[in-house]
Amino acid sequence: MILKYIPVSLYLYIYTLLFIFIYNVYLINTKFFMINTLNVYIMMYNTCKLNILRYLLKNHMKFFYNILIINGPNLNLLGEREPHIYGSTTLTQLIKQLDEKGKLLNTNIHHVQSNSESKLIKSIHDSNKKIDYIIINAGAFTHTSIALRDALMGINIPFIEVHISNIYSRENFRSHSWLSDISSGVICGFGLDGYFWALKTAIKRIKQTKK
Question: pTM (2 decimals)?
């Protein structure tokens, strides 16, 4: 009964204040909603962009150069065989490190290791017109295999000869190489670092020839 004595103007004033309050709350909530929605869309976009980039890098990235690393007999025993000479790093670990380094330099690393002379020769034959450069540690075949020499001479791919140990400070029979005089260079006696120096040199030379 009291309400009927309240002036109409007061009703209008109260309703106006209530409307303004509700409207402001709506604007605040709408703005908050829009900001959060925008943040969600930004997060979704960044996530999608990152996933797409990862997919492209993994599956479709085209490398500029292709380098074949050949390891001969007994190099599968790296990390176990005479660690005082050859170190404790395994062949798997070495190739992984070289592969990671290659990717940073836009280079695709191909690798073959075999104790079989015929498999090494086949890998050399198969590299023709596919590989830009070869890095080879022929192991004991360095001192015995004229067949490997002929295979390398039979393709038009430059190569660097690598040896982990200093072959000239060991047994006399190791001081002769059937590959050195036809190679683009020889790196020996610097441990596994020799592979990385050979890789860096090979890429530099490829760039020079492709200019």
Answer: 0.69
